[in-house]
Design goal:
Elements (H helix, E strand, L loop, with lengths): L1 H25 L10 E7 L5 E7 L4 H26 L6 E6 L2 H17 L15 H7 L1
Helix pairs in contact: 1-2
Length: 139
Amino acid sequence: MVRQSFDRNARLEESIRSVLAELLMFSVKDPRLEGVTVSGVSLTGDRSIATIYFSIWGDEERERQAADGFAAAGPFLRRELARRMRLRIIPELRFARDTSYAYGDHMERVLSRLHEEGLIPPPEADGTAGTAADDEEDR
């Protein structure tokens, strides 16, 4: 029974992400939300709260503007979500910046610096660097 609930949550999260992304592209006219991407959705176990992760290029001021835009558009987004998805319980929408892209960019810069300093070997030139398990499969 737990697995079924997890699968349903995953499907609902993806459906919510898709609907919200479409709404942001075609229905929301707030200029503070231009260029904002819905990168993920996380539902609580009882599906009463959905955390919507968004990504945006820019500084903290741009992030603040996007958060203000979501605060203003939140009721509209929730109402449209209810209309399009026909769920029994429409989750409360909470918005949070997705920092995984910034973290990935930071890690890329750290690895580049370590390569430049010779502390770790450079990646394979042809991009076919694999794991030991990949090498084992090739044999």
